[in-house]
Amino acid sequence: MRTFAIAASVAVLALSSLVGPASADPIIIKFSHVVATDTPKGKASEKFKELAEKYTGGKVKIEVYPNSTLYKDKEELEALQLGSVQMLAPSNSKFGPLGIREFEVFDLPYILPDLKTLRKVTEGPLGLRLLKLLDSKGITGLAYWDNGFKQMSANKKLVTPGDYQGVKFRIQSSRVLQAQFKTLGSLPQVMAFGEVYQALQTGVVDGQENTWSNIYTQKMHEVQKYITETNHGYIGYVVIVNKKFWDELPADIRDQLTKAMKEATDFNNTQSQKENNDALAEIKKSGKSEIIKLTPEQDEAMRKAMESVYKDAAGRIGQSLIDEFQKEAKSTTN
Ligand code: LMR
């Protein structure tokens, strides 16, 4: 019986190697990310899956892996470059450590007043140029997806710059974010996103900065007594694919995927603000964390306290890039 089973499977194998893979086998795209499904990025990746599978008539299958189930922050970029995963949407902050320092500009405190302004930059010439820089790392940048603006949280009230003195903050691996907390006298500590909740809970760090949707879906508000509505920095993503994989796709498939990506991007960028507003409402409703609003004077003091971060960044990415970013942000043309 066993011999027969082995003989049969050998025959099947031999046959399939003769005719090659069945033509109906779909192309698999693994799309890995670190946040919950119920976030802007989580929902947009599901939207992309739905549209991509529909437009390619099932020739492509998108497997979405949320919540760091496949890879953590740094590992996911390495995996993409190696081709073990095909698609990711890391935050802008993740490209600096990869050697594309220009992306650090997105991390600068208070560089963007709102998402409309951000769009002028990402959809303008600078946005395109930044995407092109990824090519040299074997990465193709497909789109910019928003999350939103970051808030500060801790177990103590963070109101004045002086309140930040000596507080241990989890940060993404970013020279700008490191400088931002150092200038406030805090102790920044790089940590993968998936480890933040536990680090806050056990006191490995005292505080963190993130968007309302990330704070809520990771339950950080349950282990942080106070969240200050600072809106001091931006978190957004670049949807990327392994360049070789992308270039080698049949042209018609690539076109359908591009169309699906465009629509998923519109979907993401029209609903990310709402996702964050809804998360804020849920956090308020939970009563687990007190939300602190700053007066205009307190807000101004925070801005002033972080000014030196620009100088520090200019030394690495160039003042002209910061100027260009700010000029495009202010422009009224696009
Ligand atoms: C973080 O690490 O805080 C964020 O980049 C996570 C994310 O992808 O939104």
Key structural traits:
334 residues, alpha/beta, D-Maltodextrin-Binding Protein, domain 2, five-stranded mixed sheet, 13 helices, 11 strands, 47% helix, 17% strand, globular, binds (2S)-2-hydroxybutanedioic acid
Walk me through the structure:
The protein is α/β, with parallel strands linked by helices. The protein has one domain: D-Maltodextrin-Binding Protein, domain 2. The chain has 13 helices and eleven strands. Helix 4 (115-122) crosses helix 13 (319-330) and helix 6 (175-183) packs antiparallel against helix 12. The protein is globular and about 65 Å long. The termini are far apart. Bound molecules: (2S)-2-hydroxybutanedioic acid. (2S)-2-hydroxybutanedioic acid binds at residues 34-35, 73, 91, 147, 172, 193, 210, 214, 235.
Write the layout of secondary structure elements.
Layout: H1 2-19, E1 27-32, H2 40-55, E2 60-65, H3 73-82, E3 87-88, H4 115-122, H5 125-133, E4 139-149, E5 151-154, E6 168-171, H6 175-183, E7 187-190, H7 196-202, E8 207-210, H8 212-217, E9 226-229, E10 234-242, H9 243-247, H10 251-286, E11 290-293, H11 296-305, H12 308-317, H13 319-330
Parallel strand pairs: 1-2, 1-3, 6-7, 6-8, 9-11
Antiparallel strand pairs: 3-10, 4-10, 5-8, 5-9
Helix pairs in contact: 2-10, 4-13, 6-12, 12-13
Bound molecules: (2S)-2-hydroxybutanedioic acid.
(2S)-2-hydroxybutanedioic acid (LMR) binds at residues 34-35, 73, 91, 147, 172, 193, 210, 214, 235.
